[in-house]
Amino acid sequence: MTLEMADNAHKPKSARRDMTSGAITVAAILLFVGTGSSALSSAVKYYFAAGDPTDRTLVIALLLNVALILIGWRRHNELRREVEVRTAAEERAQLLAARDPLTGFLNRRSLAEEGAALLVQAERRQKALAMLMLDLDHFKTINDMHGHATGDGLLRLVSEEIGRAMPSVALMGRLGGDEFACAFLFDPAHPVERIAERLVSRVAQPFVSDRLQLQISASIGIARTDHGCASIDALMRSADIAMYAAKNAGRNRFAWFDQSMERELKARNELEVGLRTAIPRQEIVPYFEQQIDLSTGRLFGFEVLARWEHPTRGLIPPEKFISIAEDIGMISDLSLSVMRQACLIAKDWEQNLSLSVNISPLQLKDPWLAQKIVKVLTETGFPASRLELEITEVALFDNLALAQSIVGSIKNQGIRIALDDFGTGYSSLAHLRALPFDRIKIDRSFVGSINVNAESAAIVNAIVRLGESLNLPITAEGIEDAAIEERLRAMGCSKGQGYLYGRPLTAGNARRLLAEKRLLRNAPAKAPDLDVSDDEARKAG
Ligand code: C2E
Ligand code: MG
Ligand code: MG
């Protein structure tokens, strides 16, 4: 079977019928042209001059011929209409496959395809190609607050602004959600920075959608082909990395891609991969920072601080991995694992010593948090009355009602709640009253500079007075020297912690310290010397 025959065999029935009727029509026309004139004269003779009866056959043939031509003509018209409808449908399908239906922008695949073609063109003309990646900041809040229809309306408005900001020949794509990408050739008449700057400031202006005034901002990353991006994929990846750098730098801005971002990302990816196994392997361990009663100098408890004892990289501080754990959804596992280890370690410490454990704002969105904490306490046998949870104000923004109900269940178990890092966030009185806090912790940024900065001193003083009037005890963090301690005591601050009393300690060193102070329930006769594996020795606190 030839290819053509095979093709014909696969053609639908109607198409084969069309071909047959076409062939018949053509044959009929040829027949008509060949025999028409003699048949016509025979017909005239037959009717008007009672001619030869053999002409009758010719007349019938003529009529049949005409009928065939008419049928063929009708079929031809039907066919033409069908082809038109099919072509329109194919064009529409192609358009839908290439474009985002909401904004009319190219989708990711088509942007990559057309971008690759533009790149070839750029190379031929010895020009550079710029890729600009734009992501809206906190767009989810708009959807959550006003619904998806309003969110879609805003995306359309933003796409219109992007269209207005771009040079006339630019590829514009929506990569999904609230992420857009544009590619265009470098042109001194349209400096890329100016385009990005204008776009950032326009998106930060209010939009009106569904008669609602919507406030949003955008982060933009830019990469260019003449800075080491050989393919369109590499260019898009670099612009994406730069966009995340813009987000990390505080959002509502643009950033150019540079190689150091790539290295940072690689390091972060390594930490991310490592973290997944580090938690179950208990490489993330609790360190213990002393908390002191400022009026008596007595040790009354410890803040539990996570440290990653990395098998090859040494001790990694929490600021390097807490946010990664939050991003990959492992923060709950991490905090609960640290809490569990700390509760087991502190089981035979003196009964009055408390543990303060940090809780991530994300954990306050977990309706099962209270149950998970109670499970840790039951399994380790650590009393709820000795546990305090430190939460920051950020935890109260997203869903205050949920946070209130979770904190309510936690407090019902007899666990105390402290508001951490007070003074750095909104420091709102409404938040202080929204939850039944047992303590406020003043952030170390004010405490550390209390003797050198009048403003810090005024803030610390105001927080201490606030605590007095609300009947909430205050703990000052970051006491680094005796002068700070003295000043806090004079202000009436009752509790404190900081490097003055020592760096966060390993479990072993905390135990040795307690043995020395006779604060262990089964204290050994003589406490051995502190080992060298705590924060102080490694200077990682
Ligand atoms: P934080 O809860 O405000 O913890 C206090 C931080 O201040 C600790 O840093 C501590 O080492 C440091 N610090 C204490 N005294 C001084 C001082 O005198 N001077 C200075 N400059 N710093 C001092 P660290 O351990 O690096 O913890 C940073 C943050 O990481 C913590 O802030 C907390 O928000 C978070 N974190 C730590 N462990 C955990 C955890 O297990 N779970 C969660 N979710 N977050 C944790
Ligand atoms: Mg804390
Ligand atoms: Mg703090």
Description:
- The strands form 3 sheets. The chain has an 8-stranded mixed barrel. A 5-stranded mixed β-sheet has the order 2-3-1-6-7, with helices on both faces.
- The protein has 19 helices and 16 strands.
- The chain starts with a helix and ends with a helix.
- It is elongated, with a radius of gyration of 39 Å.
- Helices cover 52% and strands 17% of the residues.
- The structure holds ligand C2E and magnesium ion (2 copies).
- Residues 420-421, 441, 443, 477 line the site of one magnesium ion.
Task: Summarize the structure in short.
This protein is an alpha/beta fold. It is built from 19 helices and 16 strands.
DSSP helical segment count: 19
Strand sequence of the main sheet, in spatial order? Answer: 8-9-11-12-13-14-15-16
Number of strands: 16
- The rounded distance between the terminal residues' Cα atoms is 80 Å
Fraction of residues in H or I helices: 40-55%
Biggest beta sheet summary = 8 strands, mixed, barrel
Q: Beta-sheet strand percentage?
A: 15-25%
Bound molecules: ligand C2E, magnesium ion
Rg, rounded, reads: 39 Å
Q: Please tell me the overall pLDDT.
A: 88
Alpha-beta classification: alpha/beta
Shape, principal axes of CA atoms: elongated
The stretches of 5 or more residues where confidence is low (pLDDT under 50) are 1-15
Feature tags:
binds ligand C2E; 19 helices; about 550 residues; alpha/beta; five-stranded mixed β-sheet; binds magnesium ion; disordered N terminus
How is the secondary structure organized here?
Blueprint: H1 3-10, H2 13-48, H3 55-98, H4 108-124, E1 129-137, H5 139-146, H6 148-165, E2 171-176, E3 179-185, H7 192-203, E4 207-209, E5 212-214, E6 217-224, H8 232-248, E7 254-256, H9 259-278, E8 284-293, E9 299-310, E10 314-316, H10 318-327, H11 331-345, E11 354-358, H12 369-380, E12 387-391, H13 400-412, E13 416-422, H14 429-434, E14 439-442, H15 444-447, H16 454-470, E15 474-476, H17 482-491, E16 495-496, H18 507-516, H19 535-538
Parallel strand pairs: 6-7, 9-11, 11-12, 12-13, 13-14, 14-15, 15-16
Antiparallel strand pairs: 1-3, 1-6, 2-3, 4-5, 8-9, 8-16, 9-10
Helix pairs in contact: 2-3, 5-6, 6-7, 11-12, 12-13
Bound molecules: ligand C2E and magnesium ion (2 copies).
